[in-house]
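Preliminary data (for renewal application), zinc ion complex.
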Amino acid sequence: MSTKDWIEKDYYKVLGVSASASADEIKKSYRKLAKQFHPDTNVGDDKAEARFKEVSEAYDVLSSNEKRREYDEARRLFASGARPGGFPGGQGGFSGGAGPDMGDLFGDGGFGDLLGGIFGGGGRRRSGPVRGNDLETHTTIGFHDSLRGVTVSLRLIGEAVCGACGGSGAKAGTSPRQCGTCGGTGSTARNAGGFGFSEPCRDCRGRGAIIDNPCGVCRSAGRVEQARTVQAKVPAGVKDGMRIRLAGKGASGERGGAAGDLYVTVQVAPHPVFGRSGDHVTLTVPVTFPEAALGAKVDVPTPLDGDVTIALPAGTTTGRVLRVKGKGATKRDGSRGDLLVTVEVAVPQSLSSNARTALETYAASTSDEDPRASLAAYRSAR
Ligand SMILES: [Zn+2]
Ligand SMILES: [Zn+2]
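Predicted structure:
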């Protein structure tokens, strides 16, 4: 996403509130929309997911007084026709001195990375706290774990403060010195069309500091890639493809900024016997023809509660679904779905001579019954 996209985004419109909306109105509208488009209730719906992200992004900015003020200011400048510029690489953007600090607004969108790229070497000129990025990962769990709930260890590779230099970017025992050109602010003033703008200082690349002896470990970036392990609690009843948000488990913030969130997409491994249909668990149970015809008590397994006995009514046809209440998956409200048992009448693949004789006798005794009567009726009407 470019800076321009961001400024052109109308977060007020996204949340369906006026630009003068109170914090309460914003919160109320966000709650309503977040509920409506939550991925948990819109599994597989990409549009809802996109809306959910948009709504979350808008709320992230508008719910913070400081971010909202900066956003309003940026939009006001944008609307006035002013175009900030002058970043190395040609990318437009406000700089930290006079304009709002976009990086702060973008802790969750990867914009910080974009700035890092623009400034080369990962240098970050911003001086205020920066929220860490949101991270995405996925995990595969077993079918029973999906029903019981499980805690999984996720290995993540992310940025962390360089331990060798403590994040300063300067070789251990040395310190960065303040940039003389910008006096440590990281930006220099520029006048354009009556608007006072500032642009990143070219001497220190917007960092405000010059590093004479770069840290050999992070090459003066102050941050290094590091593996870490996160324990993620997957709730009971999770469905295949569901996305879980772990607040504060994303990338760590900078200079006291809050950590981002971690989004985990959960895949559920298929089970050889049980399946899933919404909050219900499905199971196909083969029965013999006599059981189906005469009725029977049949023991069937449940995924979490041992065996249950179901009463097969006389005259059960193949494909009939019998419901065992409350033996399915855990719902969001804590109650349980059902176990849906599909009956499948099994046909013997080999017959003893006794069985064959019995079946022939049976066939002879039912010869006046036509199982294809409905087809005969169709033919005669044709
Ligand atoms: Zn400078
Ligand atoms: Zn370092």
